[in-house]
Amino acid sequence: MDKNTVIGLILIVGIFLGFSWLNKPSEEQKLAQQHYRDSIAQAQSQAQREAAAAQQLLNEQKSQEVDNDSVIAAKSGLLANVAKGDSSLVVVETDLLKLQFSPKGGSLYSAELKEYLTHDSLPLVLFDGKEENLLAFTFSLKGEVFSSENLFFKPQEIVEDSVSKRLTFRLEMPDTAAFIDFVYTLYNDRYVIDFDIVTENMFSFFDNRNYWEMVWKNKIRQQEKGRKFENNYTTLNYQFANGDMETLSAAKNDMKEPSTVTPLQWIATKDQFFSTVLLAKQGFSGAKLRSNIEPENSKYLKSFSVESDIFFDYSGRQATNLQIFLVPNHYKTLTSFNKGLEKGQKPNLQRIIPLGWSIFGWINQILIIPMFNFFGSFMTNFGLIILLMTVVIKLIILPMTFKSYMSTAKMRVLRPQVDAINAKIPADKPMERQQATMALYKSVGVSPMGGCLPMLLQMPILFAMFAFFPSAIELRQQSFLWAADLSTYDTVPFLTWSTSIFGFKHLSLFCLLMTITNIIYTKLNMQDQAQQQQMAMMKWMMYLMPLMFLFFFNNYPSGLSYYYLVSLLITIGQTYLFRLFVDEKELLRKLELAKHTKKPAKKSGFMARLEAAQKEQQKRIREQQKKGKR
Predict the structure, then answer these.
(1) How confident is the model over 345-375, as pLDDT tens digits?
(2) Would 55 be classed as within a structural domain?
(3) Which residues have CB under 8 Å from 8's CB, separation 6+?
(4) Which of 162, 259, 401, 511 counts the highest number of beta carbons within 10 A?
(5) Beta-bridge partner residues of 113
(6) Are residues 334 and 409 in the same domain?
(7) Contact 337/325 with Cβ under 8 angstroms?
């Protein structure tokens, strides 16, 4: 293995280690986990007491509900008629969603995505009950402040046509024709609900304020097999009206108060593959956003809360327009919400899918996703789709791979001459050795960096695929060979155990095969490496890296490990083909011919800068030697 390949591999390891370091648990998380382990018995006991207390409180609340609502009514006779009412849920279904609405608060109570299941084959419910999802508004009527969550709205008759269903919850003012309507419009083939707040004859009741205060609390259920991995992709995202998007930390508890200068367009609470998004067409202002990690023994991953102001026209001339998206994180589905809208109005919800920043995201959007969708349009076996994608990608980067191999081959055939230079020049004169070696490379037109640059040019595709596979909902619950779900790690009985070993209770077979293949590939590349004592540590590191990847990728999607496995196998095949068709004796003859005819390849800018740096360093050494003699 030549110096260029070593540099490239070290760069790869450095990037992966940097990624791991950036995603390592914070000190706050470590302390929280330690505290949890030390107090597990106490926590379980406390949980039992809290459950009993919660049940008792629930019973008391049910018995005292009328009394509590009467307190509200006593404060203002305006709402005496809505302080109590029927809590029976209203169920509405479309082709994609099964929803329940609560008259108390006139709010969405539960949401089920009918086309999906959890990892253990249960209905995929995003939330169920106000403990898991609460959307409430605070407003003022003649000086009295009320919250919609404590008021009973009267459900109106559902209006239905061929494409949509409209459900209205009405808050009626007594003895008048004034009311507040919460209007929900559902579409048969879309994962979106139009939510409009409309008033009629309410001008004399409202205070002169052009906003309502909004509270949204949402808990994210665990839906996938790998809790820790899913938690890494569970975040609260929000987008400003100018298109900038930001995210609360996934690795720790976080809180942000975005700038009040630019309102927010939407706020999304998401897990690995599903999202609940709240969009305000008139914008959110003065928002406070919080994210908290739930304990490991909880059925929830994170809890999110949002406090914000929303537009409200107290005159009643303009409605407040919101939208609720209950949606899978499917790229094509999310981009469909942009159709027919002006540039500034497009929600661009596809940005909540973590496809990688900068160039990595562009590669996924321009190359990987269209290719994935193309193969998926005429085949359903996702293992074969990944195989075909790998072949296409390897063909795309084949010229760079061949150029890298040829650079390595040139360095290899010149190795005897480099050894001769090292034998001639003592080891205590490294600068002279380096200059003589560089002169040899220059004479035959070889660049030491010629093999490293093509390797670096392949890195964006490597990292684009690294971001794509954990985010591809199409792979969710799709089986291939022994992997039951390509979107999470694969398990087989003989590589699964009940007790944790070094933090692992399994080894992914695809990941293990990838590691073995990587070791074989490393050995193949090092066969022609001269046996030098000073390279022993470097060789040891080359074999250590695949083992590091084994533990790094063990919890990653099996589809990703399978892709890297196939990619390595193809690379090994390419290497043997290159060696078969590239005559190294003829290559050496051409290099010697270039040296004797003095027709070296054009010197690269890097080589020119390297030579200039060497000359400058040699000049300083001579000056220091002169000073020493004086």
Answers:
(1) 899 999 999 998 888 999 999 999 999 999 9
(2) no
(3) 451, 452, 455, 456
(4) 511
(5) 97, 124
(6) no
(7) yes
In this prediction, residue 64 has a pLDDT band, given cuts at 50, 70 and 90, of: very low
pLDDT for residue 27: 53
Mean pLDDT, rounded, for 40-52: 48
**Residue 262 · residue 284 · CB < 8 Å:** no
- Cα-Cα end-to-end distance for the chain: 45
Give the chain's domain count. 2
What distance in Å separates the CA atoms of residue 194 and residue 324, rounded to the nearest whole number? 7
The stretch 313-335 carries a mean pLDDT of: 94
Q: Do 250 and 378 belong together in one domain?
A: no
Give the residue, 467 or 614, on which the prediction is more confident.
467
Tokens of 391: 């072949």
Residue 172 near residue 83, CB atoms below 8 Å? no
Please state, rounded to an integer, the average pLDDT across all residues of the chain.
82
Residue pLDDT, tens place only, 265-323: 999 999 999 999 999 999 999 899 999 999 989 999 999 999 999 999 988 899 999 99
**Angle (nearest 5°) at CA 44 between 41 and 47:** 150
Task: Classify 159 as helix, strand or coil.
Answer: strand
In the chain, the amino acid numbered 157 is E
User: Is the pLDDT confidence value at 163 over 60?
Assistant: yes
Identity of the amino acid at 226: G
523 and 555 Cβ atoms separated by less than 8 Å: no
- Residue 27 structure tokens: 């000190």
How do beta strands 164-172 and 179-187 pair?
A: antiparallel
Confidence of residue 221 (pLDDT cuts 50, 70, 90): very high
| Antiparallel, parallel or unpaired: β 300-311 and 211-221 | antiparallel
* Of the candidates 461, 489, 618, the residue with the CA atom closest to the CA atom of residue 555: 489
* 385 in the same domain as 424: yes
Q: Which among 446, 447, 476, 475 is positioned nearest to 385, based on CA atoms?
A: 475
Name, of 63-67, 388-392, 395-399, the range with top average pLDDT.
388-392
What does the pLDDT look like over 573-605, one tens digit per residue?
A: 988 898 888 887 888 888 778 776 655 445 555
Which H/E stretch holds residue 372? helix 369-376
One domain, residues 519 and 389: yes
Q: Are residues 219 and 287 in the same domain?
A: yes
CA dihedral angle for residue 145, residue 148, residue 153, residue 155, rounded to 10 degrees: 150
Query: Is the separation of the CB atoms in 103 and 169 below 8 Å?
Result: yes
- Please check whether residues 117 and 167 belong to one and the same domain: yes
Q: What secondary structure letter does DSSP report for 345? A: G
Q: Is residue 620 in some structural domain?
A: no
| Amino acid, single-letter form, for residue 404 | S
If asked whether residues 542 and 411 sit together in one domain, one would say yes
Say if residue 363 is exposed, middle or buried (CB neighbours under 10 Å; 0-12, 13-18, 19+). buried
Element (H, E) at 304: strand 300-311
* pTM of structure: 0.78
Whether 343 is in a domain gets the answer yes
Of 313, 334, 354, the residue that ends a domain is: 354
Give me the domain span that covers residue 397.
Answer: 3-25+361-599
Residue-wise over 428-464: b if at least 16 C-beta within 10 A, else e?
eeeeebebbbbebbbebbbbbbbbbbbbeebeebbbb
Q: Which residues contact 256 (CB under 8 A, 6 or more apart)?
A: 246, 248, 288, 289
118 with 253, same domain: the answer is yes
CATH number at residue 152: 2.70.98.90
- Tell me phi and psi for residue 244, to 5 degrees: -75, 135
